[in-house]
Amino acid sequence: MGVWLFGIPVLVGIVEAIFSLRWNWTYFSVGIRVFHRLMPVLDPKARAPSEERLETALSRSAFPALAFWALEDDRLAFREKIGGLRFGYPPVMRGNLRFQRKGARVEVIGLLNWYVLVFVVVAGLSVIVLRSPVFLLLTVGVITLIYAIQFRRFSQAGRAAAAEWSMSDRSRPQSRRS
To answer: What is the pTM of this model?
Structure first.
């Protein structure tokens, strides 16, 4: 019984990794929304920023770099890059940036990764099987920590996208003076 409890999340994780690595349109479009922010843009440019510009703008981090992929002219998918020498973690969500010219804003959406949902269900079932809530509590704690990291990173992605899309320097982050 214990083997299938942990085998199912691993299988879901493998399928999800394949969809993510292939930038599957449906995978990055459909899911449970767990993050949502709207970033205003002053005087947006005619074209949304390129994937390369956003990757460069967000390249300084102790965590894995963010990779971007154009799904549509006004929509980019993003996720953590796999590999590298930076501190990594299993991501809780995958992201979308939508450039809304009519509202002059960037919408940042985080969709829950499927394996997380399956893993939480399995952790819940482990309470019955193991007769202890320790695994469930540990799982919820780790997922909460990773979500907090990604919350900050997704917010940064939205701010960088808004700054790159704006023709005005006023939307660009100001450097702190010592």
So the answer is: 0.87
User: What local confidence, expressed as pLDDT, does residue 169 receive?
Assistant: 55
User: Which residue type occupies 140?
Assistant: V
* Cα dihedral sign, 17-18-21-25: negative
Q: How confident is the model at residue 82 (pLDDT cuts 50, 70, 90)?
A: confident
The answer to whether residue 57 scores a pLDDT higher than 50 is: yes
Rounded Cα distance between 143 and 71, Å, is 27
Minimal CA–CA distance to 139: which of 97, 174, 92? 92
Q: Please tell me the distance from the alpha carbon of residue 160 to that of residue 173, in angstroms, as a whole number.
A: 8
- pLDDT, tens digit (0-9, with 9 covering 90-100), for 67-79: 999 999 999 999 9
Residues 6+ apart with CB under 8 A from 25: 71
User: SS in 3 state form for the chain?
Assistant: CHHHHHHHHHHHHHHHHHHHHCCCCCCCCCCCEEEEEEEECCCECCCCCCHHHHHHHCCCCCCCCEEEEEEECCEEEEEECCCCCCCCCCCCEEEEEEEECCCCEEEEEEEECHHHHHHHHHHHHHHHHHCCCHHHHHHHHHHHHHHHHHHHHHHHHHHHHHHHHECCHHHCCCCCCC
